[in-house]
Design a protein that fits this description.
The complex is a heterodimer of chains A (667) and B (256). Chain A is mainly α and 667 residues long. Chain A is built from 27 helices and nine strands. Helix content of chain A is 51%, strand content 4%. The termini of chain A are far apart. Chain B has helices at residues 37-53, 67-77, 95-107, 128-136, 191-200, 238-251; strands at 2-7, 9-11, 33-35, 56-62, 81-86, 113-117, 140-149, 154-160, 166-172, 175-179, 204-207. Chain B starts with a strand and ends in a 5-residue tail after the last helix. Chain B is globular and about 75 Å long. In chain B, the strands form two sheets. Chain B has a nine-stranded mixed beta sheet, sandwiched between helices. A two-stranded antiparallel sheet of chain B has the order 2-3. Chain B has one domain (2-207): 3-Layer(aba) Sandwich (Rossmann fold), CATH 3.40.50.620. Helix content of chain B is 29%, strand content 25%. Chain B contains six helices and eleven strands. Classes of the chains: A mainly alpha (667), B alpha/beta (256). The A-B interface holds A 259, 264, 369-370, 372-374, 376, 379, 382-383, 386-388, 393-395, 397, 471-474, 476-477 and B 14-16, 32, 34, 185, 187-195. The structure holds iron/sulfur cluster (2 copies). One iron/sulfur cluster (SF4) is lined by residues 292-295, 302, 304, 341-347, 357-358 of chain A.
């Protein structure tokens, strides 16, 4: 006998289902329409390039859910729940194929192995996932779900999903008992439920079956109708936000809205792009961004999740005309929130649906800056930068003062050709803590025979951070100045020790016609410590840990070069828990180094970071590869009392320790 | 209300000041100029009056240093008109001559309120504003921290006195006010706006009428502070340092 089950057994009136479905469908479509119409409020932003790459992203992140699965508990519960639900939905559609196209989906081995066994197991998985999710929401309550405000919307949904799944199994169980289905055990979930109905009179079984069949259908329809109005909307919108995600490097900020009637930047939702608005509906409220955000964790008022949710409420209220005249910038998103961001990019890295908080924040900063609405210290910095070309407010003529007293002379690349144009940057040039490292780098490179030169006082700050605080005009002015000088020089590559400088030179200067390759000194050092490069005479046999600068690692993917250098020196590298892509910001980025500390800070990011390093077993050195970190971390070891426990060293300083004065020849 | 703000440039102390070969003047080759801080506040005070009560603000500067930059920045910040007085020597004018030049230039302008910084790093004895008031025979109040309109043709100013005392003084217009500070710090103008203004606006250039003033005192010698003795730096472990300090005190007979 071929295994099979009868289509629509016991439901003579099954055609009625379409009539029942219709109102739910209308509500669903209306909800989808209303949601999509909201996005159209935003300004245009073409996101239709590289379709294949976009599709692959959707399959990987919405389908397989790689990012979601980075976390064990939440990953497993989401994957089981969503895959289970998806398989059940697919199976329901397959039933329709038999009904309307006569495809035999409910008989034979396909029925037995897939439609019964596999689908049922997925159903069980979904039930387990739902249970795990409810446990997490009601009992475990991880902080990132309840702060800054919880979302109860999910509880309703989860209960509804539970009802749908359970009623499905009840229907199946009743059918198995009532039809004495010989293949009942192939549907393990239904079979289990069937045990509850054994011994019930046939008539009762059939009546109960009809009731639960309709109940199951109505619950499922209710879910569909509720979907666009609920947290479940992310099921539809998240794949879109993944598909339309930015494929540009994170370090290349979008140009922004330009100078419309309302000025540059974004002071209202209309000045954000449609993709920004779509992001708001895609947010699942998972809080992963927030759990990684140095602003939030240090006690600042910014949470990327909170930002997205506040903007979303504003968007919905706006179209409901109930926003009470609240301005997006200032009322909905306060200045404190906007200025708290380090632009570290951790939220981008963590978000399973590729929401992009940083460009939104920078757009709002552009608006504030255009209004002169900046805090006093930031104002001083910006004024100094436009006046002197450096953010430290020092004499531009003193830019190359760090070269004084160095026993090597450094080429003036404006006069002499060199292989590398070393773009030194503001901090490496002027900051007392960073200057020693700059000098160490100069000596090491010189001794290794690397052919490099600097621009001396012809260099101005690169403008990376000016751009991140929204001072687009200042950024452009700096770019123009620098390019005018650099165009008159002869060199092959640009090198810099400063990841912020590196980022803008590499990702943003090309828009202005700069086409030179850009390398970080860790990459140059990496080339040097290869076997035929500089001779290392001392082994640094000590345990060190390395801090990935946000703008080098997460932003530009340079993770291995500095690590290879450290290993070549003989150091034993121990990783901090938050390393590589999940590295934790030192608190200097995004122009924060120029602003007053927000009120109510519990623990500065740099303090949290040095504690993390100091907690590693027998590690006494924290290695940095960014001139800003030197000052941040040296300060932090003092304020945390870890001075005896941890020294902060620049990569170049360690290389210098391990080399002699002998030069091995070439680079 | 028509407000005129007089702006001056002073040497920017971010650069080390060098004395030229004559030994009696700053070496202008290395000099970088910036707007004088209290002039910056005078401009802010004028712009606040404009924002809050409506006024037309024109700014005026002698053409030396970075006058163009300063005037364009003032336009970008919200001034309505910018006048540059040309024909000024490269190193600027003496304070009395500057006041007289401003007086001549203001002669043809209808203005109710003249605001300028009360002092500058090269005018610590606050000459320009006071002398201008005197030359123009207008009421003058200096060292103010706020200026507000009060009734027809009058302003109420808050003037600071040493020791934290302050006075409210009603001044009949036209008048000259020497501003110490505006009620709020000078606003930030984004670079894009300054660049936009430089492209779209022009400065009203006027030849300065040479003013005859009695001879100003001449500088005979300009010099940097000369330290008689250099500080002695001590080095070593805390114990060694303590020993050295004791020894020094003993040597000088300050310790038994
Ligand atoms: S970029 Fe960093 S600081 Fe800014 S919101 Fe994202 S995680 Fe927080
Ligand atoms: S923005 Fe992304 S990571 Fe943050 S809560 Fe929303 S979905 Fe989660």
């Amino acid at each position: 006998m071929t295994p099979m089950r009868e289509l629509n057994w016991n439901i003579a009136e099954h055609k009625l289902i379409y009539a029942v479905f219709l109102p739910f469908l209308i509500v669903f479509l209306w909800g989808v329409f209303v949601t999509m119409r909201r996005w159209l409020l935003g300004r245009p932003d073409p996101r239709w390039d590289r379709l294949w790459e976009r599709l692959v992203g959707v399959v990987a992140q919405a389908g397989v859910q790689f990012r979601i699965l980075r976390e064990a508990y939440a990953g497993v519960l989401h994957a089981t729940l969503s895959w289970g639900f998806f398989v059940l939905l697919a199976a329901t559609c397959l039933v329709l194929l038999q009904e309307y196209l006569g495809l035999p989906t409910l008989q034979g081995p396909f029925y037995l192995y897939f439609m019964s066994l596999v689908v049922d197991l997925f159903g069980v998985l979904a039930l387990v996932g739902t249970g795990m999710a409810l446990l997490r929401r009601w009992v475990l309550k991880p902080k990132r779900l309840v702060e800054p405000r919880g979302s109860d919307g999910y509880s309703v949904l989860l209960v509804l999903i539970f009802v749908i799944l359970a009623s499905g199994f009840v229907v199946e169980g009743l059918r198995i008992v009532a039809t004495r289905d010989p293949w009942g055990a192939w549907s393990p979930g239904g079979w289990l439920f069937a045990q509850a109905f054994l011994g019930m009179p046939q008539e009762g079984l059939e009546r109960l079956h009809r009731i639960s069949w309709w109940g199951h259908a109505v619950a499922a329809f209710a879910f569909i109708a509720y979907l666009p109005f609920s947290r479940a909307m992310h099921i539809l919108v998240a794949p879109l936000s993944i598909f339309f995600r930015s494929l540009e490097p994170l370090g290349r900020l979008p140009a922004g809205g330009g100078a419309g009637a309302e000025g540059p930047g974004a002071s209202s939702l209309r000045q954000l792009t449609w993709k920004h608005l779509l992001d708001l509906d895609a947010c699942t409220e998972c809080g992963r961004c927030q759990a990684a955000c140095p602003a939030w964790l240090s006690g600042a008022p910014l949470s990327p999740k909170g930002l997205v949710l506040d903007l979303r409420d504003h968007l919905r209220a706006r179209l409901g005309h109930s926003n009470g005249g609240r301005a997006m910038v200032g009322d909905v998103i306060t200045r404190e929130v906007i200025w708290s961001c380090f632009t570290c990019g951790a939220c981008h890295e963590m978000c399973p649906v590729y929401i992009e908080p940083v460009p939104k924040i920078v757009e709002m900063r552009r608006f504030l800056t255009s209004q002169g609405d900046v805090d006093a210290t930031l104002q001083d910095t910006l004024t100094a930068t436009s006046r002197y070309g450096n953010s430290l407010g020092q004499s531009p003529r003193a830019r190359a003062r760090w070269t004084q007293g160095l026993d090597v002379t450094i080429k003036d690349i404006r006069r002499e050709r060199a292989r590398y144009l070393w773009f030194v940057g503001d901090y490496a040039s002027y900051d007392p803590a960073a200057r020693d490292a700059t000098r160490a780098a100069a000596r090491v490179l010189h001794r290794a025979g690397v052919d490099f030169g600097i621009l001396y006082d012809g260099e101005s700050g690169s403008g990376n951070d000016a751009r991140r605080v929204g001072e687009e005009g200042l950024f452009e002015m700096l770019v123009e100045k620098n390019l005018a000088t650099m165009r008159g020089c002869e060199f092959d590559e640009i090198m810099t020790t400063d990841p912020h400088t590196y980022n803008t030179l590499k990702n943003e200067y090309p828009r202005f016609g700069a086409t030179w390759p850009v390398v970080h000194y860790s990459e140059v050092l990496d080339r040097l410590v290869q076997p035929d490069g500089v001779r290392l005479t001392r082994k640094l046999s000590r345990r060190v840990t390395y801090h990935d600068p946000c703008y080098l690692g997460r932003y530009n993917g340079v993770f291995d070069a500095p690590r290879r250098v450290l290993r070549a020196l003989g150091a034993e590298l121990v990783e901090m828990p938050r390393n590589r892509r999940s590295s934790y910001c030192c608190g200097a980025g995004g122009g924060r180094i120029w602003m007053k500390e927000a009120a109510g800070i519990k623990e500065r990011p740099a303090e949290s970071r040095v504690r993390e390093a100091a907690a590693l077993d027998a590690v006494g050195t924290l290695v940095v590869a960014c001139p800003k970190e030197m000052a941040m971390f040296r300060d932090a070891v003092k304020t945390t009392g870890l001075e005896d426990r941890l020294v902060i060293k620049d990569l170049a300083e360690l290389v210098e320790e391990a080399t002699t004065l002998e030069v091995s020849g070439h680079a | 209300m028509n407000i005129t703000v007089l702006l001056s440039m002073v040497p920017d102390l971010v650069e080390e000041l060098e004395i030229d070969a004559s030994g009696a003047a700053l070496d202008t080759q290395w000099l970088r100029y910036v707007i004088s801080e209290s002039d910056d506040h005078a401009l802010e005070q004028a712009l606040l009056l404009k924002d809050r009560h409506g006024a037309s603000v024109s700014v005026m500067a002698l053409d030396y240093g970075d006058a163009d930059q300063v005037l364009f920045a003032a336009l970008a910040r919200g001034a309505d008109e910018a006048v540059k007085l040309t024909g000024i020597p490269e190193a600027g004018l003496g304070k009395r001559a500057a006041a007289a030049t401003f007086k001549e230039a203001l002669g043809g302008i209808r203005t109710d309120l003249i605001l300028t910084g009360v002092q500058a790093i090269d005018d610590l004895d606050a000459h320009v504003a006071g002398m201008l008031g005197g030359m123009m025979a207008l009421p003058y109040v200096g060292v103010t921290r706020s200026v507000e309109p009060s009734g027809e043709g009058k302003v109420l100013v808050q003037k600071e006195y040493p020791g934290g005392a302050a006075a409210e003084i009603e001044v009949t217009l036209p008048a000259v006010i020497g501003v110490l500070s505006a009620p709020q710090p000078p606003r930030y103008v984004p670079v894009a706006r300054i660049r936009e203004v430089m492209k779209t606006r022009t400065l009203d250039e006027r030849e300065a009428v040479p003013a005859t003033v009695p001879a100003e005192p001449a500088i005979i010698r300009l010099f940097k502070p000369e330290s008689a003795e250099h500080a002695q730096m001590l080095d070593g472990s805390p114990e060694e340092l303590a020993e050295q300090i004791v020894k020094i005190l003993e040597d000088r007979g300050l310790a038994p």
